[in-house]
Amino acid sequence: ATAGPFATGSAFYYGCRVTSGGNVVWSGWRRVQSGPLSPAVGRAVPISYTGSSEGRIDIVFIPDSNSYPAGAADLNFQSDVAAVIENAYYAQDVYLRNQDLLNFWIAQDTGTTAVVPNPGGWNDCVNTAPANWQTAYLFADAGALLHRPNCRDNAPTNQRFFSAEPTSVDVVVHEMGHTPFGLADEYCQSNPSLPCDGGYFPSTNIYSSQAACLADPLAAGVAGACQQIANASSSVGWWRLDSAATIGNDLMVNNGAYKAADTRQHDRLFAQCRAAKC
User: Residue 188: is it exposed, middle or buried by C-beta count within 10 angstroms (0-12/13-18/19+)?
Assistant: First the structure.
């Protein structure tokens, strides 16, 4: 379907309905701003707006100034944003079925991702949000700082943003699990000569003792549930709900899909959004 042309700076609305026999699925209405960048909230431009922030998770895409010299107007950045929405968010059922509770925005300001070699043999991402992130973007639940160089991404503590390469869709969703959903890492190091170095903290997907993990109703009936986070030479005092058999297919480990405890936390926050308490 085609629509337009639209006046510069105007907004238009669209929605998608799919029917199959007696089944009907409706995406909800989306608002998109047309023409040159012109912010609707602070310095953020809506690219898929479904409703007010009280009842939505607001995700703001931030361009890395080193990767996208033209910032928000960079066509490569805009293309990468579209790819992330399609291939990361809408490829995960928990986001697809709650798409009416997501607002996507583009930041008109840039952040930076610096690539710094790590003694462990990889490159770390050292991320800096836009200088006005804590003033002009207070409505945002999560900022996604997109960059193209390869480095180990992260979600800085209590800063409401994370970094990701647009082609690393599992990393995008893994970091989203941290911010804004508050999930902890469930991995150790795949290299057994290196210590566990994830972000471990009290959350709803890891436990400070095996007994506490086994007491979770989600552990019932799971063969080999509640494995300690460890590798051949290192461990930490945290246990993950799922069995050893699922470790290679868990987004909070490395890739794959959100598992039961991860999905539960998403469902809790989305339920708050439906009650306008995001």
Answer: buried
pLDDT given for residue 248 in this prediction: 84
Instruction: Look up the pTM and report it.
Output: 0.93
**Who wins on pLDDT, 244 or 63?**
63
Do the Cβ atoms of 3 and 12 come closer than 8 Å? yes
Residue type, 187: Y
State residue 168 phi and psi, 5-degree precision. Answer: -95, 75
Q: How many residues does the chain have?
A: 278
Distance CA 232, CA 151 (A): 25
